[in-house]
Known about the structure:
Blueprint lengths: L11 E3 L2 E3 L4 H12 L3 H9 L2 H11 L8 E5 L5 H9 L8 E6 L2 H12 L8 E4 L12 E7 L8 H11 E12 L5 H22 L3 H13 L3 H10 L3 E8 L4 E7 L2
Parallel strand pairs: 3-4, 3-6, 4-5, 6-7
Antiparallel strand pairs: 1-2, 7-9, 8-9
Helix pairs in contact: 1-8, 2-7, 3-4, 7-8
The structure holds S-adenosylmethionine.
The site of S-adenosylmethionine has 21 residues, from helix 1 and helix 4.
Amino acid sequence: MKGKNNSHKMKVPFGFQDVDPEDKPHLVRNVFDQVASRYDIMNDFMSAGIHRLWKRSFVAEIPKRPNLHLLDVAGGTGDIAFRYLSSLSEINPETRVTLCDINQAMLSVGQRRALTRQLPLLPKWICADALQLPIPSRSIDVYTIAFGLRNVTDIHQALFEAYRVLKPGGLFLCLEFSQISYPLLEQLYTKYAFHIIPLMGQLVAKGRTAYQYLVESIARFPNQETLVQMLASAGFKHTTYRNLSGGTAAIHKGWRV
Length: 257
Ligand SMILES: C[S@@+](CC[C@H](N)C(=O)[O-])C[C@H]1O[C@@H](n2cnc3c(N)ncnc32)[C@H](O)[C@@H]1O
């Protein structure tokens, strides 16, 4: 790995480890390379299908205007982009959906899935890092990121980058695991997450370490209030959040004015 002589540098979290910032994109890419082909089936297994309800609630937050350009960052195998496209009652030549992900294996699974759906339009696929989007400033109406912010090397920078690409009046939406507000549910969840999910990952997705990383990264992700503050410090206004399933996940929202 690079950066072994840079011990003075700030480290960033990768699960429960602290790693050099330049190593994290490669480590995260490895995680999703391992699980790409089984990613969707594993989501259903480990959440008993609940991720579908969360994604439905999330997509319901996106305005349904046909002339809107949606950018779905960390879009993976396409769940958010496909749900959004399927929810549109009307499209026109200005309707645009761009799906960006750092991992080509996840995008390739998504591209194959897109061909099996009756989508009114195919997304544009971009392989890029959320920290450096190859997207012009002030060009996007809605920026979505679902279960992706946890994985980026620098959350602040990802939020600044989201702000940069949004048009004034544009909407930022994040769906992410969060802090559970009920102690009993929290205890049950922690047991399930640390004991069952990595085992399921091993059996279903052949990737125990990938799912160990998943639960560790959730544990280290900022809570609801902290993320609201981070959004505000990136420049977003009218920032709010809404808990899903007692705070197991949350939808954060902010506007570029
Ligand atoms: C848990 S998956 C979520 C996929 C999809 N949004 C969903 O909800 O099913 C996380 C995705 O984030 C992507 N990712 C991780 N780090 C990223 C980064 N720095 N920039 C863009 N995508 C990233 C991964 O490759 C992976 O596809």
